[in-house]
Design a protein that fits this description.
The chain is of the alpha+beta class. It has 3 helices and 2 strands. Strands 1-2 form a two-stranded antiparallel ribbon.
């Protein structure tokens, strides 16, 4: 089973991320901002943002509408 299904995410939940990466590739840190911009029309209640850096660096943030 794929990880996104284990997390309860659908293909639609990941569509904006996949589209931005397919169109622009990995642009490092700006990729997160590009995906957030792509999510604006959908206006999700929660967004999980993850970033992986050199070595074993991992950054994560749970963003919610306030």
């Amino acid at each position: 089973m794929s990880r996104h299904r284990e997390l309860g995410l659908t293909d639609a939940d990941l569509a904006a991320s996949r589209r931005v990466l397919a169109e622009h590739g990995n642009c490092s840190s700006p990729t997160v901002l590009m995906i957030l911009e792509a999510l604006r029309p959908a206006d999700p209640e929660w967004i999980v943002a993850l970033a992986f850096g050199p070595g074993l660096t991992l950054y994560g943030a749970l963003l919610g509408r306030g």
